[in-house]
Amino acid sequence: xxxxxxxxxxxxxxxxxxxxxxxxxxxxxxxxxxxxxxxxxxxxxxxxxxxxxxxxxxxxxxxxxxxxxxxxxxxxxxxxxxxxxxxxxxxxxxxxxxxxxxxxxxxxxxxxxxxxxxxxxxxxxxxxxxxxxxxxxxxxxxxxxxxxxxxxxxxxxxxxxxxxxxxxxxxxxxxxxxxxxxxxxxxxxxxxxxxxxxxxxxxxxxxxxxxxxxxxxxxxxxxxxxxxxxxxxxxxxxxxxxxxxxxxxxxxxxxxxxxxxxxxxxxxxxxxxxxxx
Amino acid sequence: xxxxxxxxxxxxxxxxxxxxxxxxxxxxxxxxxxxxxxxxxxxxxxxxxxxxxxxxxxxxxxxxxxxxxxxxxxxxxxxxxxxxxxxxxxxxxxxxxxxxxxxxxxxxxxxxxxxxxxxxxxxxxxxxxxxxxxxxxxxxxxxxxxxxxxxxxxxxxxxxxxxxxxxxxxxxxxxxxxxxxxxxxxxxxxxxxxxxxxxxxxxxxxxxxxxxxxxxxxxxxxxxxxxxxxxxxxxxxxxxxxxxxxxxxxxxxxxxxxxxxxxxxxxxxxxxxxxxxxxxxxxxxxxxxxxxxxxxxxxxxxxxxxxxxxxxxxxxxxxxxxxxxxxxxxxxxxxxxxxxxxxxxxxxxxxx
Lengths: 277, 352
What we know:
The structure holds two protein chains of two kinds.
Chain A: H1 2-19, H2 24-27, H3 42-49, H4 55-86, H5 92-101, H6 107-119, H7 141-145, H8 152-164, H9 167-175, H10 180-191, H11 193-209, H12 212-217, H13 226-236, H14 241-261, H15 263-273
Chain B: H1 8-16, H2 23-49, E1 52-54, E2 58-61, H3 65-73, E3 76-78, E4 84-86, H4 88-119, H5 125-137, H6 141-150, H7 157-164, H8 179-186, H9 204-230, H10 234-242, H11 247-258, H12 260-276, H13 279-285, H14 305-315, H15 320-351
Antiparallel strand pairs in B: 1-2, 3-4
Helix pairs in contact in B: 3-15, 4-9, 4-12, 5-9, 6-13, 9-12, 9-13, 12-15, 14-15
């Protein structure tokens, strides 16, 4: 049962890989061939060059938004988590409760207001001081990145990790006259690197796979991420399955490699709280 | 773990050494500003938008008209003959419930079974876990397109399999007819003309979405069950084995009851995920040859409440205010589920 199940689960990946080498005629045969009768690697070249703005460009857009978004989330999350774990300030517990409470807010309710907010950010995209007249951040990288930049889950997870670091490290750092930021950067972050990697990986994968939000807030081909591009690449080549599989493979393989390299971190993160960006 | 768990004196001592006053606020300011602007404020802003007829911007203040449309016409409406009919919202909710019922119990039972097997020291265990979990990380539009080909009516490998084992081939993603009727048809009972489609379970197209969702979320469920299994003390199994309990009895009397909190957590977690699913439905249902080629087809038979929200927001003119009202309905459903989930997570932590 376990082995049979694994075969079924792995089958779509295998089918994608085999299909990516089939010609359009062969991919439409019924019943289908298992191995390609004639290997047709040209699909990859075509998948790379044919979309309106070339697949390479879309992949770059995805990589850019995912990396900047994840790095920003990590930076913002680390600072907040450190303060919530180690600093004492007025209203700390209340504010942490507020952060936790935002996890109860589902994405759907933020969709429309955030779309409107993005269009009305003042002084960008032709907007005046009050955020009118232009399109604000609509149709920009910032529009894709900003709303998901601060996640409650990373803050929560990093805070938990920071709390497990023994107090002696801080005391020793204080004897050396280290500041808060110096302690955070030189001691705490290296000590908690596994958790940081976990948060980064989950953030990256969530952003790489995102479809709905980037679809809503972008229009220009030159900035759209690859998952959005895949949907109309699909519309334009409905039955050229070989070509579609080659494109799908190119889009999926970075994630597969990342997962194979850092599987343990993924699983730790998922066990700790689910795949939330 | 928690700083409050320390005795008061140690806690005070520890905290006194830290910067006090407003310094710490600076650290949390970026996160808080973003969370307030893009998470908290939207709840109120969404309410405001839902009171308007709104397109790119506000057009008319309409008060509760959008909610009337949502809760009155959305539930009961009149068809072209003047008879009573199911409204759009109720229709979407029913589709969503079919989607949840088709996905969640199957995923959980499969994951439970597989997790108990993967928990044993079988050869290749690591590789098996890797494979099962892989679909969870590759959950974008790209991989869903593979399913569009596999379930293609003309060139799909699934139809080839059906033909090979003597089953009638299906039109899958192009078929708005309930799968139940396709089954009764196949066994010679006809398509049950007396039974309205909407009460006959998920459409054949939705079944494909359900299969995709099970495939893609199975690994996550297995991982969570495996984490739960490691928390069960080994002595319990030993004691049961000494008492002569069979493997099946142990599974039913020990493993399943002890993993109940995990199961309950997964139940809610999967339900929420299914309610929110967008990518597979958008990717797999636009290409349908029946209908307008919008997500949710064919003939709206995969139009879950989230896709219905998207349709009104993105594909209909002047409907943004109404979509915001739909978002509120969804918000309260999710909030209810999330509150239950938080309680369960709390309980789950206590068990460990």
